[in-house]
Design a protein that fits this description.
The protein has 145 residues and is α+β, with helices and mostly antiparallel strands. It contains 3 helices and 7 strands. It has one domain: START domain (Alpha-D-Glucose-1,6-Bisphosphate, Chain A, domain 4, 2-Layer Sandwich), CATH 3.30.530.20. Helix content is 25%, strand content 44%. A hairpin with a 5-residue loop joins strand 5 and strand 6.
Length: 145
């Protein structure tokens, strides 16, 4: 099992970060990798079991299912259902936010566990790590630019 973990201190409040990152359909709004996204069957983006279908700028697509979303704990968990350009199996990820009470900033952590062939391991780990890092940066930029 491969694990990728990324953490960041964002120069925005927990509430600001969560308002961006909780939107399961919002990736194209703040993430440079993704061009468009929709929730299948017109379900709400915060409904457990909903499936987001999104595309990167190269036309590759990914389908992910929302497994949990907690406004109380500021966490989101999802799994990949289909990702032809990302050679992984059993991919499950979780993102969690916490306040930094002394500064009013937000601490975010995002991790994923999955199976990947050894030949693809380094490339996939870097792509997943970059995806998480850029999501945190993009969320912060919504309020600091």
């Amino acid at each position: 099992m491969t694990r990728v973990y990324v953490s960041a201190v964002m120069p925005i409040s927990l509430e600001q970060a969560w308002s961006v990152l909780r939107d399961f359909n919002g990736l194209p709004d703040y993430h440079p990798f993704f061009a468009k996204s929709y929730i299948e069957e017109g379900k709400p983006a915060d409904q457990l079991g909903c499936v987001r279908h999104f595309h990167d700028h190269d036309g590759n697509h990914i389908r992910e299912e929302l497994l949990s979303l907690s406004d109380r704990d500021h966490l989101c968990c999802y799994r990949i259902l289909e990702a032809p350009a990302l050679p992984v199996q059993g991919y499950v990820a979780e993102m969690r936010l916490k306040p930094i009470t002394t500064s009013g900033q937000c601490f975010g952590e995002w991790w994923a566990e999955f199976e990947v062939a050894e030949a693809d391991r380094e490339d996939v780990m870097q792509r997943v790590s970059d995806t998480f890092r850029l999501a945190f940066e993009g969320a912060a930029e919504r309020f600091t630019s």
